[in-house]
Specification:
With 269 residues, the protein is of the alpha/beta class. It contains ten helices and ten strands. Strand 3, helix 1 and strand 4 (44-46) form a beta-alpha-beta unit. The termini are far apart. Bound molecules: NADP nicotinamide-adenine-dinucleotide phosphate. The site of NADP nicotinamide-adenine-dinucleotide phosphate has 28 residues, from helix 9.
Length: 269
């Protein structure tokens, strides 16, 4: 059975399942989603400066009554000319926290090394327990490792059976960078796939559970998003079953990236 927590290269423990809150509106909608997730046993929330909902994440965390060290909180630097260390201080104010567990460069705007000095400063100040990146390809990771005093602990990328970036996964694992799967359900699109549905039917599970489970069994930290109570609960009920070797093979073949080491086929930056 898959462990629910793993260690990053620096020893920081990270829950392998987190709630993603992209496109969940600040206010009641986001507070409810985070509250339901914490009640369902999630101990990892993935937000970002440009999701506009850090305040609600913070409020739901406080209202939960859970101790700060029981929940792993990630936010992401909205890349641009601003200083990542100063922007994290603003995030912490919105979240109502002294530190986040993980702070990521959201994408390599202006090149893979541009934000890193400021990210390291945020880390030195103790405002981020670990720092990392998102949407970085293997070449970006190599460039960054060439200059980093504090190496990235995580690379968060689009990852699912349909985007099975084996080359990127291997490159990151070789360099001690843990991979996180964003859009593990294809922002909903992959839930309608026939082969995913067939496996779900046979196992008496849902397509979402099959896709989340695939990410876990492929060694990823996985971040499904939902703003519905039943789905949030359902997406976390993935630690009491396993996909067989044959299931994994069928799902692996859905890959449309040819096992690329790139982070995205069509970067938006
Ligand atoms: N770093 C980056 O650049 C980046 C980019 C994209 C995403 N992310 C992170 O990854 C997280 C997840 O990715 P995502 O938001 O693209 O989407 P996703 O998790 O792949 O899919 C979410 C979609 O699937 C639906 N859904 C969720 N669970 C379901 C279920 N059990 N049954 C039926 N439908 C279900 C949701 O609808 P409802 O909400 O209506 O239930 C929503 O439309 C984000 O929230 C964010 O934290 C990061």
């Amino acid at each position: 059975m898959t462990a629910t927590v793993r260690a990053l290269a620096d020893g920081t423990e990270i829950p392998v399942l987190g709630l993603g809150v992209w496109q969940i509106r600040d206010g009641r909608e986001c507070e409810d989603a985070v509250r339901w997730a914490l009640e369902a046993g999630y101990r990892h929330i993935d937000t970002a400066q440009n999701y506009g909902n850090e305040r609600s994440v913070g409020r739901a965390l406080r209202d939960s009554g859970l101790a700060r060290d029981e929940v792993f909180v990630t936010t992401k630097f909205d890349p641009g000319p601003r200083d990542p260390a100063a922007e994290l201080e603003r995030s912490l104010e919105r979240l109502g926290l002294d530190a986040v567990d993980l702070y990521l460069v959201h994408w390599p705007a202006g090149g893979p090394t541009r934000a890193w000095d400021g990210m390291q400063r945020a880390h030195e100040r103790g405002h981020a327990r670990a720092i990392g990146v998102s949407n970085f390809g293997a070449a970006d990771i190599e460039s960054l490792l060439g200059v980093a005093a504090v190496p990235p602990m995580v690379n968060q990328v689009q990852f699912s059976p349909f985007e099975f970036r084996r080359g990127l996964q291997e490159a990151c694992e070789r360099r001690g960078v843990a991979l996180e799967a964003y859009s593990p359900l294809g922002t909903g699109r992959h839930l309608r796939d026939r082969e995913v549905a067939a496996i779900a039917d046979r196992l008496g599970r849902t397509p979402a559970q099959v896709l989340v489970r695939w990410s876990l069994q492929r060694g990823l930290i996985v971040l499904p998003k939902s703003s519905h109570h039943d789905r949030i609960v359902q997406n976390a009920a993935v630690f009491d079953f396993e996909l067989t070797g044959d299931d994994l093979t069928v799902l692996d073949k859905l890959d449309r990236t040819h096992g690329t080491d790139r982070a995205l086929e069509h970067p938006w930056w």
